[in-house]
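**Archive record**
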Amino acid sequence: METILNAGRWAPSGLNNQPWKFIVIQKEETMAKLEDCTHYGKIIRSAPLLIAVFLDQDTMYNRTKDIQAIGASIQNMLLACCELGFGAVWLGEILNNKEKVNLILSCPDSMELMAVIAIGKPVQKASSSNRKDLKDVCFEENYAEKWR
C-alpha cells in the first residue's frame, strides 16, 4: 500500500505544491456506503482496497495545473499497481455523487473528489480496449498537417 501511495505522492505538480490528499479505504461498512454512490458498485464491492483521491483546494494555486497533477498522481498509482501485480481501475463516474462521498468520508468542503481507485486482483481476460491510430490523433507542425 505504501508503494502505491508513494508513487502517487511523487507525481509532478506545479510549484511542487502537491495538491492531492488520499484516503485509504478498507472497511467493508465504508465500502458498502460508497458502492451506492456509483453505477460501478460491483467494482467497489469486489475490491479489497480503495483509494479516494482529492484535490486539496486550500493548497491549490492553479486549478488546471493542479487537476493535471492529480491525474499524474492517479496514473502513477495505477502503474505501481500494475508493477506489483494488482488490478486497479480509475473510477470517475462516482464524481456525480462527490458531495455524498465527502459526507461518508467526513471530508471538509475544501476537499474535492477527483477519483476513486479500486485495487484488487487483476481480471484474467483478454482486454477489449483499443486506441485510435496515431494518424487520427497526431499532426506535424500544425493542425492542417496530418501525421505521416
